[in-house]
Amino acid sequence: LASCCRRGFRVMIDPTDQGTYVRLDALRVGVVDDSAYFRKLAETMLGAFGVRVILQAATEAEALTMVMTQSPDVLLLDWNLGTAGNGAALLDLLRRHPDERVSTLAVVMVTAYADKRRMLAAVELGANDVLVKPLSARRLYERLAELSSARQLYARRGNRLVPAVPPAKVIHDGPSEIIHVRSPLRGKTIR
User: Beta strand pairing status for 2-6 and 9-13?
Assistant: First the structure.
C-alpha cells in the first residue's frame, strides 16, 4: 500500500484495487437521532470506518449543545426526532447561526422517507447530503469520504448559509454570493 498526505489526512492507495481508501480516523462525527438503536448502528458503522470520535445526541437541545461544545466535523442528523425535536428546524438554526464554525458544519440529513419533497426541503435548508434509512454502510462511507476530502463552498441566501453545489454553477445574483470555503477535517475557514 502506498500512502500520501492530502489536506491533513491520508489517502491509502492499494495497487491491486482500482479505488482509494480515505482514512476517517481524524474525523469527529456527531449522530443525532431519537432512536438509541439507530445511534448504536451508526456508531458501529463509523467505528468500522476508523472514526475514533463519535458523539451522540437524542434531542434537538442535546445536539445543539454538542455542536457548540464538542465541535463535530460532520453531523448525521435525523429529519424527525419525534417528541425530542425536529431535525429540519435544527438544521435551519445551524445554518442561520452567526458563528461560521457552526453555520458551515457539514450536515448529512438522514430520513426514513424518500419522497422528493422532503429531499428538496433538506437541500433548501442547507443539508450537504441526504441519506435514506436503512443506512447503507457503503453509501455512508462514500458520503463521509467525500465530505472529508472536498472543500465546500457556501453561499449566503438571505440570513442562511447553504452549500453551493456544484461550485462551478454558482452565479452571483443579488443576495446570493459565495462566502467562504471550509475544510471539514481541519475545521478552518479558508478565505
Answer: antiparallel
Pairing between β-strand 177-183 and β-strand 152-157 as defined by DSSP bridges: antiparallel
CA 74 – CA 54 distance, rounded (Å): 10
Q: 0.85 exceeded by the pTM?
A: no
3-state secondary structure the chain: CEEEEECCEEEEECCCCCCEEECCCCCEEEEECCCHHHHHHHHHHHHHCCCCEEEEECCHHHHHHHHHHHCCCEEEEECECHHHCEHHHHHHHHHHCCCHHHHCCEEEEEECCCCHHHHHHHHHHCCCEEEECCCCHHHHHHHHHHHHHCCEEEEEECCEEEECCCHHHCCCECCEEEEEEEECCCCEEEC
Alpha carbon 63 to its chain's center: 14
Query: Do the Cβ atoms of 185 and 26 come closer than 8 Å?
Result: yes
User: Which tens digit of pLDDT belongs to each residue from 146-171?
Assistant: 888 877 788 888 888 888 764 333 33
User: Model confidence over 53-88: pLDDT tens digits?
Assistant: 999 999 999 999 999 999 999 999 999 998 877 999
Give the Cβ contact number of residue 117 at 10 Å: 8
Instruction: Inform me whether the pLDDT recorded for 6 exceeds 80.
Output: no
Torsion of CA 164, 111, 142, 181, to 10 degrees: 20
* Structure-block grid coordinates of residue 89: 428546524
